[in-house]
């Protein structure tokens, strides 16, 4: 399904000293695509490790559970007013929503005549959500490390996985020029869903972050196995395939938001750990969780936008 297909089509090429042999141009294409694919594969591996580390730190240790539980308790403050906004966001997620979202992503890919990509985006959504359910209900456990029973394992978040996976599927399926806008919308929707699960005390921050890493893993895998038939092509003969400036801007803004949110969350977490906050530590921990969710969401989509643009673009002829 994800088999790599070598692009052996001859490319016109010329250099400063005259025409460049077609064989050399083809080698340049393969090298450029191989490098981007290797990076995508490494990202997928790091995402898998990240899921494991998230569980190990926040679920399998008493200190991690205390931090997560503190944020969980902090969500009770102002919950009544916030739930008015959060509940409709969570109500969007359903089996029908997933089916429609997969259908739309596949339809976009088919309309672009990217037949293999249509199968890939469907596999992405299904694979990410099945992975989340297996991890949560079969493979991972939540030990009782705090006083009393604190419930079954809830990592990763199913609602966040659905929101992130359908957003990433659309990001991968849409044309090159549309991806920055689709990415920004995906970040907003996914972050809203993840934070809403915190507001409703359906999940802890680590559950949401693990779900984002699961989707990052599957999205990176699809990028790593981008076949030749799914590469971008110019809209008009001889048109440019240069990465749109909006992609660079969107990527930088999202990475900036991720770094800024991460720094703020880390600083506030340090204050909570030292118990030197001027107000309730549970509220501060809750704010840290929201910032962390927003930061990881922005980073996830920024990375996938860069990977998609890189793996879908053939090397320019010399």
TrEMBL record:
Classify the source by domain of life. Bacteria
For this UniProt record, give its keywords in alphabetical order, as a comma-separated list.
Membrane, Transmembrane, Transmembrane helix
Q: Which Pfam families match?
A: PAP2 (PF01569)
TM segment ranges = 38-58, 89-108, 115-135, 155-174, 181-202, 208-231, 252-277, 283-307
Domain Phosphatidic acid phosphatase type 2/haloperoxidase, chain residue ranges per copy: 117-223
User: What SUPFAM superfamilies does UniProt report for this protein, alphabetically?
Assistant: Acid phosphatase/Vanadium-dependent haloperoxidase (SSF48317)
Q: Which InterPro entries match?
A: PAP2/HPO (IPR000326), PAP2/HPO_sf (IPR036938)
| The keyword Transmembrane helix belongs to this UniProt entry's keyword annotation | yes
Under which name does UniProt file this protein? Phosphoesterase PA-phosphatase related protein
């Amino acid at each position: 399904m994800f088999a790599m297909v070598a692009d052996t089509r001859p490319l016109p090429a010329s250099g400063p000293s005259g025409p460049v042999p077609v064989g050399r141009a083809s080698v340049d294409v393969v090298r450029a695509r191989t490098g981007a694919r290797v990076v995508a594969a490494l990202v997928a591996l790091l995402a898998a490790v990240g899921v494991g580390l998230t569980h190990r730190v926040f679920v399998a240790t008493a200190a991690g559970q205390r931090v997560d539980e503190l944020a969980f308790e902090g969500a009770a403050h102002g919950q009544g007013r916030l739930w008015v906004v959060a509940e409709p966001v969570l109500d969007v997620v359903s089996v029908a929503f997933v089916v429609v979202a997969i259908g739309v992503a596949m339809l976009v890919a088919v309309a672009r005549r990217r037949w293999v990509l249509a199968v890939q985006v469907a596999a992405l959504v299904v694979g990410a959500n099945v992975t989340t359910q297996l991890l949560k209900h079969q493979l991972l456990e939540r030990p009782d490390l705090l006083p009393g029973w604190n419930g079954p394992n809830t990592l990763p978040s199913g609602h966040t996985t659905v929101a992130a996976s359908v957003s990433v599927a659309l990001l991968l399926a849409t044309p090159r020029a549309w991806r920055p806008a689709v990415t920004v919308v995906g970040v907003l929707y996914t972050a809203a869903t993840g934070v809403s699960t915190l507001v409703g005390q359906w999940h802890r921050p680590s559950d949401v972050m693990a779900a984002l890493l699961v989707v990052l893993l599957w999205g990176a895998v699809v990028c790593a196995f981008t076949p030749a038939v799914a590469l971008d092509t110019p809209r008009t003969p001889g048109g440019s395939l240069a990465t749109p400036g909006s992609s660079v801007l969107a990527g930088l803004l999202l990475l900036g938001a991720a770094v800024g949110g991460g720094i703020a969350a880390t600083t506030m977490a340090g204050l909570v750990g030292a118990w030197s906050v001027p107000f309730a530590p549970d509220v501060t921990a809750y704010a840290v969780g929201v910032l962390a969710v927003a930061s990881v969401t922005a980073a996830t989509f920024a990375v996938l936008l860069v990977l998609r643009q890189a793996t879908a673009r053939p090397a320019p002829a010399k």
